[in-house]
Write a structure and sequence with these properties.
Helix content: under 10%
Shape: globular
Strand order of the largest sheet: 2-3-4-12-7-10-14
Number of helices: 1
CATH class of the largest domain: Mainly Beta
Oligomer: single chain
Largest sheet: 7 strands, antiparallel
Radius of gyration: 19 Å
Strand content: 35-45%
CATH superfamily of the largest domain: Jelly Rolls
């Protein structure tokens, strides 16, 4: 994996571009959160205009993973509403796609999203999560032994596993944190971790990440401790193998950290031009 360390950017500063790399869906808008220059794998926010549709039978050469942030998207007559999730593996056939009212969809591609018209598509059915309403899922509030998180105390958090790759152990999950949750521990992971802030705030040493905040963190980088004023809901992924955590004791979190991100170009320029740092509520 050759993605740069991005920690963190408020994704609202990243411009939308028309169409996807690789030529698929040329009439939607794509905001690229991060991209692997070698494989074409990318994390994106896609905006589908109202009335958009694709009626050809097609499949992508790569995995597509989706989480609907707003609106709704229909795939194979399955309606993905707000906060619905899907993992559609390489070769997964799509007989139709549409968005009646428009949609904003957090979307991850495992490589360059090239589409082919296929009459009889084939895909690995072990790796399909066809339609999942994350609101209706039960959450885990106890120890995260399945994620090798050791004796970390998860009090004040809830965890929902969305997908675990049966071959690599890579996973996608949601984590929710209650208001005033905090931890005095920093973390180190042996795999790349990425995270998108769906709702709320979380105080990192590098600043306060709010709705739309995003990071891609390579393996082995210490991060934390953390705190949240009003609570938060984040979507997380690990890439490069199974997730695990090494804990490092600290003096506790900074509840008012200045925004001092690690950003490659052009993310640093976009952030500077937008003057987006840490917008407190305007009472």
């Amino acid at each position: 994996m050759t993605r740069p360390h991005i920690e963190f950017v408020q994704s609202q500063v990243i411009p939308f571009e028309l169409g996807l790399p690789g030529g698929a869906r040329p009439d939607i808008f794509c905001r690229t959160l991060s991209r692997d220059d070698e494989t074409g794998a990318a994390s994106t926010v896609l905006r589908y205009p109202a009335g958009w549709h694709e009626s050809q039978h097609f499949a992508l050469e790569v995995d597509e993973e989706i989480f609907v942030l707003d609106g709704s998207l229909t795939i194979n007559d399955h309606i993905y509403g707000k906060h619905f999730y899907g993992h559609l593996p390489q070769g997964y056939g799509r007989k139709n796609m549409s968005s009646f009212s428009g949609a904003v969809v957090l979307t991850f591609f495992s490589g360059l999203p090239v589409a082919h018209v296929i009459q009889n598509p084939e895909w690995d059915r072990r790796r399909v999560v066809e339609r999942l309403d994350t609101r209706a899922m039960p959450g885990t509030t106890g120890q995260r032994k399945h994620m090798k998180s050791g004796d970390w105390d998860p009090s004040g958090t809830v965890h929902k596993t969305l997908y675990v790759d049966p071959d690599t152990g890579e996973r996608t999950w949601l984590i929710g944190m209650m208001p005033y949750w905090w931890s005095n521990k920093a973390e180190v992971h042996p795999v790349a971790e990425e995270e998108f802030a769906i709702l709320g705030d979380i105080c990192f040493p590098l600043g306060v990440m709010r709705d739309g905040g995003y990071f891609w963190r390579p393996p082995g980088i210490q991060h934390g401790p953390f705190a949240t004023w009003g609570g938060a809901l984040h979507l997380c992924r690990c890439k490069g193998g199974p997730f695990a955590t090494e804990w490092v004791e600290t003096d506790g979190p900074d509840w008012t950290p200045p925004y001092t991100p690690i950003l490659p170009e052009p993310y640093a320029t976009w952030t500077k031009m937008a003057a987006v740092t840490n917008h407190e509520p305007n009472y």
